[in-house]
Amino acid sequence: MAILERRGTGAVAHLHMNAPGRLNALSDEMIAALQSQFLELRETASVRAIILSGAGKAFCAGHDLKQMTSGRQNADGGKAYFKDLFDRCATMMQSIRALPQPVIAQVHGIATAAGCQMVASCDLAVAAQGTRFGVNGVNIGLFCSTPMVALSRNIPRKQAFEMLTTGEFIDADRAEHLGLINRVVAADTLASETRDMAEIIATKLGAAVKIGKSAFYEQIDMSLAEAYDFTGDVMVENMLYRDTKEGIAAFLDKRPPDWTQD
């Protein structure tokens, strides 16, 4: 069985983690497969939105603890392996942000530890009713320090710290309220509603979404004045695109735009 399936050949690509027996844990193989696909999609201009989902009962249960435990057999007790693992996982998570296309997490069941980190790392997230989210490592004596990075950049600090220190789950409604996910939908419409969101995004000018996604994350950590200076330059660059000129003309002429979608 494939660890990761890539579906769709049009403007929407669907990455489906397919290790249901392990609750789609982020094993070495899963991390490598995701990273490979992200690098390929980064260079695929025809794809303008990406959906990330999981097979079976869960979206993703975090790192593969059995595989991690086997690393302790090394002479250093696993120190080098653990460092390499967390570095590779961090690189993969950051690759989501580096993609020009928006990435939508399609979440069901549970998203725990690094699985919750993945949801927080995606640009958008849709969850089925009944989904639970947690950074539960503290329950087994391992504080979720790397998942904390993405989580604390999505939800208020005190709420993130409560999740990290209590190890308790929050439900989908609470996750939506805090801003971890965009919306909660019925389980039987999860796939269709996520697809609808992706297809709406895919109809937009890809070059505009690309420059906008990059600018969105870059301006967040700037001061107000710096952010306005920076994004003003981005707007100028965007205005000079051929397809942006055509889009504005089409709007004024009340007709569909004739975009090249380069």
Write a concise synopsis of the structure shown.
The chain is built from eleven helices and nine strands. By secondary structure, the chain is an alpha/beta fold.
Give a quick set of tags describing it.
single chain, 262 residues, Lyase 2-enoyl-coa Hydratase, Chain  A, domain 2, 2 domains, six-stranded mixed sheet, three-stranded mixed sheet, 49% helix
Q: Layout of SSEs?
A:
Elements: E1 4-7, E2 12-17, H1 28-42, E3 49-54, H2 65-70, H3 79-98, E4 103-107, E5 110-112, H4 114-121, E6 124-128, E7 132-134, H5 145-151, H6 157-166, E8 170-171, H7 172-178, E9 183-185, H8 190-202, H9 206-220, H10 224-239, H11 242-253
Parallel strand pairs: 2-3, 3-4, 4-6, 5-7, 6-9
Antiparallel strand pairs: 1-2, 7-8
Helix pairs in contact: 1-3, 4-5, 9-10
Task: Tell me about this structure.
By secondary structure, this protein is of the alpha/beta class. The chain has 2 domains: 4-202, 2-enoyl-CoA Hydratase, Chain A, domain 1 (Alpha-Beta Complex), CATH 3.90.226; 206-253, Orthogonal Bundle (Lyase 2-enoyl-coa Hydratase, Chain  A, domain 2), CATH 1.10.12.10. 49% of the residues lie in helices and 14% in strands. It has 11 helices and 9 strands. α1 links the parallel β2 (12-17) and β3 (49-54). The protein is globular.
